[in-house]
Write a structure and sequence with these properties.
With 358 residues, the protein is of the alpha+beta class. Helix content is 27%, strand content 10%. It starts with 15 loop residues before the first strand and ends with a helix.
Length: 358
Protein backbone atom coordinates (compact mmCIF):
# COMPACT_ATOMS: atom_id res chain seq x y z
CA UNK A 1 0.00 0.00 0.00
CA UNK A 2 1.18 3.50 -0.78
CA UNK A 3 2.34 5.36 2.31
CA UNK A 4 0.39 8.62 2.34
CA UNK A 5 1.54 11.86 3.91
CA UNK A 6 -0.11 12.95 7.16
CA UNK A 7 -3.26 15.05 6.62
CA UNK A 8 -5.05 17.11 9.27
CA UNK A 9 -8.77 17.53 9.90
CA UNK A 10 -10.56 20.63 8.66
CA UNK A 11 -13.01 22.60 10.81
CA UNK A 12 -16.36 23.66 9.24
CA UNK A 13 -16.57 27.41 8.46
CA UNK A 14 -12.96 28.00 9.63
CA UNK A 15 -13.88 29.72 12.94
CA UNK A 16 -11.23 32.02 14.38
CA UNK A 17 -10.01 33.06 17.83
CA UNK A 18 -7.18 35.31 19.06
CA UNK A 19 -4.04 35.19 21.21
CA UNK A 20 -4.57 36.06 24.86
CA UNK A 21 -0.83 36.37 25.44
CA UNK A 22 2.02 37.45 23.13
CA UNK A 23 3.90 34.65 21.32
CA UNK A 24 7.66 35.16 21.00
CA UNK A 25 9.46 34.17 17.80
CA UNK A 26 11.11 31.28 19.64
CA UNK A 27 8.08 30.36 21.76
CA UNK A 28 6.32 27.02 21.47
CA UNK A 29 3.44 27.50 23.93
CA UNK A 30 0.44 29.45 22.59
CA UNK A 31 -2.52 30.78 24.60
CA UNK A 32 -5.80 31.55 22.83
CA UNK A 33 -9.30 32.63 23.89
CA UNK A 34 -10.98 29.50 22.43
CA UNK A 35 -8.92 26.43 21.54
CA UNK A 36 -11.99 24.48 20.33
CA UNK A 37 -11.76 26.24 16.93
CA UNK A 38 -8.85 23.94 16.04
CA UNK A 39 -10.96 20.75 16.33
CA UNK A 40 -9.19 17.46 17.09
CA UNK A 41 -5.48 17.81 17.87
CA UNK A 42 -2.93 17.62 16.39
CA UNK A 43 -4.06 20.15 13.80
CA UNK A 44 -2.84 23.15 11.81
CA UNK A 45 -3.50 26.80 12.73
CA UNK A 46 -2.75 30.07 10.95
CA UNK A 47 -1.58 33.17 12.84
CA UNK A 48 -2.15 36.52 11.15
CA UNK A 49 -3.11 36.83 7.50
CA UNK A 50 -1.90 37.36 3.96
CA UNK A 51 1.86 37.45 3.25
CA UNK A 52 2.82 37.85 6.92
CA UNK A 53 0.90 34.77 8.13
CA UNK A 54 2.56 31.83 9.88
CA UNK A 55 1.16 28.28 9.85
CA UNK A 56 1.90 26.21 12.97
CA UNK A 57 1.10 22.67 14.09
CA UNK A 58 -0.93 22.61 17.32
CA UNK A 59 0.28 19.36 18.86
CA UNK A 60 -1.47 19.14 22.24
CA UNK A 61 -3.20 21.09 24.99
CA UNK A 62 -1.56 21.50 28.41
CA UNK A 63 -3.31 21.39 31.79
CA UNK A 64 -3.04 25.20 32.10
CA UNK A 65 -4.84 25.69 28.77
CA UNK A 66 -1.66 26.46 26.81
CA UNK A 67 -1.18 24.81 23.41
CA UNK A 68 2.13 23.16 22.46
CA UNK A 69 2.95 24.19 18.88
CA UNK A 70 5.54 23.41 16.23
CA UNK A 71 6.44 26.70 14.59
CA UNK A 72 6.80 27.77 10.95
CA UNK A 73 5.15 24.85 9.16
CA UNK A 74 4.66 27.61 6.59
CA UNK A 75 5.95 31.17 6.80
CA UNK A 76 8.53 32.44 9.28
CA UNK A 77 8.42 32.08 13.07
CA UNK A 78 8.01 35.61 14.34
CA UNK A 79 6.74 37.56 17.34
CA UNK A 80 2.94 37.77 17.47
CA UNK A 81 1.12 40.30 19.67
CA UNK A 82 -1.75 39.55 22.01
CA UNK A 83 -5.14 39.66 20.15
CA UNK A 84 -3.58 38.37 16.89
CA UNK A 85 -6.25 36.40 14.96
CA UNK A 86 -5.69 32.61 14.82
CA UNK A 87 -7.80 30.16 12.77
CA UNK A 88 -7.89 26.65 11.27
CA UNK A 89 -7.83 27.87 7.69
CA UNK A 90 -7.32 25.71 4.61
CA UNK A 91 -3.62 26.27 3.93
CA UNK A 92 -1.18 25.76 1.10
CA UNK A 93 0.24 22.91 3.22
CA UNK A 94 -3.19 21.17 3.19
CA UNK A 95 -3.43 21.63 -0.56
CA UNK A 96 0.12 20.44 -1.22
CA UNK A 97 -0.18 17.29 0.95
CA UNK A 98 -3.59 16.37 -0.49
CA UNK A 99 -2.27 16.85 -4.03
CA UNK A 100 0.84 14.75 -3.28
CA UNK A 101 -1.27 11.95 -1.77
CA UNK A 102 -3.58 11.87 -4.78
CA UNK A 103 -0.55 11.80 -7.10
CA UNK A 104 1.01 8.98 -5.05
CA UNK A 105 -2.15 6.92 -5.36
CA UNK A 106 -2.54 7.75 -9.04
CA UNK A 107 1.08 6.83 -9.84
CA UNK A 108 0.77 3.46 -8.09
CA UNK A 109 -2.59 2.37 -9.48
CA UNK A 110 -2.85 -0.49 -12.01
CA UNK A 111 -4.52 0.25 -15.35
CA UNK A 112 -6.46 -2.42 -17.18
CA UNK A 113 -5.02 -3.24 -20.63
CA UNK A 114 -7.60 -3.30 -23.44
CA UNK A 115 -8.30 -6.79 -24.76
CA UNK A 116 -6.42 -8.54 -21.99
CA UNK A 117 -7.73 -10.70 -19.20
CA UNK A 118 -6.60 -13.82 -17.36
CA UNK A 119 -9.82 -15.63 -18.24
CA UNK A 120 -8.87 -15.69 -21.95
CA UNK A 121 -5.65 -17.69 -21.32
CA UNK A 122 -3.82 -15.54 -23.85
CA UNK A 123 -0.44 -15.76 -22.10
CA UNK A 124 2.40 -17.67 -23.79
CA UNK A 125 3.66 -21.20 -23.03
CA UNK A 126 6.86 -19.70 -21.62
CA UNK A 127 4.84 -17.50 -19.31
CA UNK A 128 2.74 -20.50 -18.26
CA UNK A 129 5.89 -22.48 -17.46
CA UNK A 130 7.24 -19.59 -15.46
CA UNK A 131 4.02 -19.32 -13.49
CA UNK A 132 4.08 -23.02 -12.67
CA UNK A 133 7.58 -22.60 -11.24
CA UNK A 134 6.50 -20.01 -8.68
CA UNK A 135 5.92 -21.43 -5.23
CA UNK A 136 2.47 -21.05 -3.70
CA UNK A 137 1.95 -17.65 -2.00
CA UNK A 138 5.34 -16.37 -3.22
CA UNK A 139 5.27 -12.55 -3.39
CA UNK A 140 1.55 -12.68 -2.70
CA UNK A 141 -0.09 -9.25 -2.64
CA UNK A 142 -3.02 -8.93 -0.24
CA UNK A 143 -5.84 -6.65 -1.31
CA UNK A 144 -6.99 -4.62 1.69
CA UNK A 145 -10.15 -2.67 2.28
CA UNK A 146 -9.03 0.07 4.62
CA UNK A 147 -6.88 3.20 4.37
CA UNK A 148 -4.74 2.39 7.44
CA UNK A 149 -3.09 -1.02 6.97
CA UNK A 150 0.36 -0.83 5.34
CA UNK A 151 3.01 -3.19 4.04
CA UNK A 152 4.87 -3.88 0.79
CA UNK A 153 2.78 -7.01 0.13
CA UNK A 154 -0.52 -5.15 0.36
CA UNK A 155 -2.47 -3.18 -2.22
CA UNK A 156 -5.38 -0.78 -1.91
CA UNK A 157 -8.60 -2.16 -3.32
CA UNK A 158 -10.47 -0.29 -6.04
CA UNK A 159 -13.32 0.22 -3.57
CA UNK A 160 -11.02 1.95 -1.09
CA UNK A 161 -9.57 4.06 -3.91
CA UNK A 162 -13.10 5.30 -4.52
CA UNK A 163 -13.45 6.02 -0.79
CA UNK A 164 -10.26 8.09 -0.82
CA UNK A 165 -11.42 10.19 -3.74
CA UNK A 166 -14.81 10.54 -2.05
CA UNK A 167 -13.05 11.95 1.03
CA UNK A 168 -11.17 14.38 -1.19
CA UNK A 169 -14.39 15.53 -2.86
CA UNK A 170 -16.14 15.90 0.49
CA UNK A 171 -13.20 17.96 1.72
CA UNK A 172 -13.43 20.22 -1.34
CA UNK A 173 -17.16 20.68 -0.75
CA UNK A 174 -16.59 21.66 2.91
CA UNK A 175 -13.87 24.12 1.92
CA UNK A 176 -16.12 25.64 -0.77
CA UNK A 177 -19.05 25.97 1.65
CA UNK A 178 -16.80 27.61 4.24
CA UNK A 179 -15.54 30.10 1.65
CA UNK A 180 -19.08 30.88 0.52
CA UNK A 181 -19.95 31.50 4.18
CA UNK A 182 -17.09 34.01 4.26
CA UNK A 183 -18.49 35.88 1.26
CA UNK A 184 -16.28 34.39 -1.47
CA UNK A 185 -18.08 33.93 -4.78
CA UNK A 186 -17.57 31.63 -7.77
CA UNK A 187 -16.40 28.59 -5.79
CA UNK A 188 -18.02 25.16 -5.47
CA UNK A 189 -17.21 21.51 -4.75
CA UNK A 190 -16.20 21.24 -8.43
CA UNK A 191 -13.58 23.98 -8.16
CA UNK A 192 -9.94 22.97 -8.48
CA UNK A 193 -7.73 23.00 -5.41
CA UNK A 194 -5.86 25.91 -6.96
CA UNK A 195 -9.07 27.95 -7.19
CA UNK A 196 -10.03 26.99 -3.63
CA UNK A 197 -6.61 28.13 -2.42
CA UNK A 198 -7.17 31.48 -4.15
CA UNK A 199 -10.55 31.65 -2.44
CA UNK A 200 -8.87 31.16 0.94
CA UNK A 201 -6.55 34.08 0.20
CA UNK A 202 -9.52 36.21 -0.80
CA UNK A 203 -11.42 35.31 2.38
CA UNK A 204 -8.42 36.34 4.46
CA UNK A 205 -8.19 39.65 2.61
CA UNK A 206 -11.92 40.24 3.12
CA UNK A 207 -11.53 39.59 6.86
CA UNK A 208 -8.77 42.17 7.21
CA UNK A 209 -10.78 44.67 5.15
CA UNK A 210 -13.95 44.13 7.21
CA UNK A 211 -11.98 44.47 10.43
CA UNK A 212 -10.60 47.79 9.19
CA UNK A 213 -14.10 48.95 8.27
CA UNK A 214 -15.32 47.92 11.71
CA UNK A 215 -12.65 50.04 13.35
CA UNK A 216 -13.81 53.03 11.32
CA UNK A 217 -17.47 52.41 12.18
CA UNK A 218 -16.94 52.36 15.95
CA UNK A 219 -16.40 56.08 16.25
CA UNK A 220 -19.11 57.13 18.72
CA UNK A 221 -20.37 55.95 22.07
CA UNK A 222 -23.56 54.38 20.71
CA UNK A 223 -21.72 52.19 18.19
CA UNK A 224 -19.18 51.15 20.81
CA UNK A 225 -21.78 50.49 23.50
CA UNK A 226 -23.87 48.37 21.11
CA UNK A 227 -20.81 46.30 20.21
CA UNK A 228 -19.90 45.74 23.88
CA UNK A 229 -23.44 44.82 24.94
CA UNK A 230 -23.63 42.28 22.09
CA UNK A 231 -20.34 40.66 23.17
CA UNK A 232 -20.68 40.52 26.95
CA UNK A 233 -19.23 37.01 27.15
CA UNK A 234 -15.77 38.09 25.98
CA UNK A 235 -12.95 37.89 28.54
CA UNK A 236 -10.34 40.10 26.85
CA UNK A 237 -11.22 42.85 24.37
CA UNK A 238 -8.91 43.26 21.33
CA UNK A 239 -7.52 46.76 20.74
CA UNK A 240 -9.62 47.45 17.62
CA UNK A 241 -11.73 50.45 18.62
CA UNK A 242 -11.41 54.01 17.39
CA UNK A 243 -12.64 55.99 20.42
CA UNK A 244 -11.04 59.35 19.61
CA UNK A 245 -14.47 60.97 19.18
CA UNK A 246 -16.16 59.34 22.19
CA UNK A 247 -17.15 61.74 24.99
CA UNK A 248 -19.45 59.56 27.10
CA UNK A 249 -18.48 56.10 28.43
CA UNK A 250 -21.24 55.90 31.03
CA UNK A 251 -22.04 52.22 31.82
CA UNK A 252 -20.01 51.20 28.73
CA UNK A 253 -18.98 47.78 30.16
CA UNK A 254 -21.75 47.44 32.77
CA UNK A 255 -22.34 43.81 33.82
CA UNK A 256 -19.65 42.36 31.54
CA UNK A 257 -19.05 39.71 34.19
CA UNK A 258 -16.53 37.67 32.14
CA UNK A 259 -14.29 40.62 31.28
CA UNK A 260 -10.83 40.35 32.91
CA UNK A 261 -8.95 43.19 31.21
CA UNK A 262 -9.43 45.95 28.63
CA UNK A 263 -7.04 47.67 26.19
CA UNK A 264 -5.89 51.27 26.57
CA UNK A 265 -8.63 53.20 24.74
CA UNK A 266 -8.22 56.78 23.53
CA UNK A 267 -10.25 58.60 26.21
CA UNK A 268 -8.83 62.08 25.69
CA UNK A 269 -12.29 63.54 24.98
CA UNK A 270 -14.30 61.55 27.54
CA UNK A 271 -16.01 63.56 30.28
CA UNK A 272 -18.31 60.93 31.84
CA UNK A 273 -17.06 57.55 33.12
CA UNK A 274 -19.84 56.92 35.64
CA UNK A 275 -20.66 53.20 35.99
CA UNK A 276 -18.13 52.41 33.27
CA UNK A 277 -17.16 49.03 34.80
CA UNK A 278 -20.17 48.58 37.11
CA UNK A 279 -20.60 44.86 37.89
CA UNK A 280 -17.46 43.64 36.07
CA UNK A 281 -16.86 41.01 38.73
CA UNK A 282 -13.96 39.30 36.89
CA UNK A 283 -12.04 42.48 36.07
CA UNK A 284 -8.47 42.26 37.47
CA UNK A 285 -6.52 44.81 35.44
CA UNK A 286 -7.20 48.39 34.32
CA UNK A 287 -4.87 50.50 32.11
CA UNK A 288 -3.96 54.12 32.88
CA UNK A 289 -6.67 55.94 30.93
CA UNK A 290 -6.39 59.61 29.98
CA UNK A 291 -8.94 61.16 32.36
CA UNK A 292 -7.86 64.78 32.10
CA UNK A 293 -11.35 65.87 30.96
CA UNK A 294 -13.43 63.51 33.12
CA UNK A 295 -15.77 65.15 35.65
CA UNK A 296 -17.99 62.20 36.67
CA UNK A 297 -16.63 58.91 38.11
CA UNK A 298 -19.71 57.86 40.11
CA UNK A 299 -19.83 54.05 40.56
CA UNK A 300 -17.07 53.69 37.97
CA UNK A 301 -15.80 50.43 39.54
CA UNK A 302 -18.89 49.52 41.56
CA UNK A 303 -18.94 45.79 42.50
CA UNK A 304 -15.63 45.00 40.74
CA UNK A 305 -14.95 42.32 43.36
CA UNK A 306 -11.79 40.92 41.71
CA UNK A 307 -10.05 44.29 41.44
CA UNK A 308 -7.13 44.82 43.87
CA UNK A 309 -5.70 48.10 42.60
CA UNK A 310 -6.25 50.86 40.04
CA UNK A 311 -3.55 53.11 38.51
CA UNK A 312 -3.62 56.75 39.62
CA UNK A 313 -5.84 58.61 37.18
CA UNK A 314 -5.80 62.37 36.60
CA UNK A 315 -8.70 63.44 38.83
CA UNK A 316 -8.12 67.19 38.71
CA UNK A 317 -11.52 67.89 37.08
CA UNK A 318 -13.51 65.15 38.85
CA UNK A 319 -16.42 66.56 40.87
CA UNK A 320 -18.56 63.43 41.30
CA UNK A 321 -17.13 60.18 42.66
CA UNK A 322 -20.00 58.72 44.72
CA UNK A 323 -19.56 54.96 45.31
CA UNK A 324 -16.65 54.94 42.86
CA UNK A 325 -15.18 51.84 44.56
CA UNK A 326 -18.42 50.67 46.18
CA UNK A 327 -18.52 46.89 46.55
CA UNK A 328 -14.82 46.50 45.65
CA UNK A 329 -14.24 44.13 48.56
CA UNK A 330 -10.74 43.07 47.50
CA UNK A 331 -9.35 46.54 46.82
CA UNK A 332 -5.94 46.91 48.53
CA UNK A 333 -6.27 50.32 50.17
CA UNK A 334 -2.66 50.27 51.44
CA UNK A 335 -1.49 49.87 47.85
CA UNK A 336 -3.98 52.46 46.58
CA UNK A 337 -2.71 54.98 49.14
CA UNK A 338 0.88 54.17 48.18
CA UNK A 339 0.02 54.83 44.51
CA UNK A 340 -1.28 58.26 45.49
CA UNK A 341 -5.09 58.04 45.62
CA UNK A 342 -6.73 60.70 47.84
CA UNK A 343 -8.94 59.66 50.74
CA UNK A 344 -12.00 61.28 49.13
CA UNK A 345 -11.87 58.47 46.57
CA UNK A 346 -10.76 55.70 48.92
CA UNK A 347 -13.58 56.35 51.36
CA UNK A 348 -16.04 55.09 48.73
CA UNK A 349 -14.64 51.55 49.28
CA UNK A 350 -16.76 49.34 51.60
CA UNK A 351 -13.91 48.62 54.06
CA UNK A 352 -12.50 52.16 54.24
CA UNK A 353 -13.41 52.79 57.91
CA UNK A 354 -11.97 49.45 59.01
CA UNK A 355 -8.77 50.22 57.11
CA UNK A 356 -8.58 53.76 58.46
CA UNK A 357 -8.92 52.58 62.07
CA UNK A 358 -6.12 50.01 61.86
Amino acid sequence: MTNLNKMYDGVPNSPDTFLTSPLASGGNIMYVADSSVFGTLPNLAVLGSEANAETVLVKSKRSDGGLEVQRAIEGLAKKWDKTTVVARNFTNYDYRILKENIELLNNNKVDKATGKGLSTKDYTAAEQTKLKGIEENANKTEIINDLITGGIAKALSAEQGKVLFQYANEGKEKIANALIGKGVRNVSKDSSFSDLAKGVDKAASNYVRKLSEYKIKLQNEEDLKTFIQNNKGVTILPNMFNTSNVTNMRAMFKDCTSLTEVPLFNTSNVTNMSGMFYGCTSLTEVPLFNTSNVTNMNSMFRDCTSLTEVPLFNTFNVTSMNSMFGGCTNLNLDRMKEIGWENRFLETAPHYQEWKNK
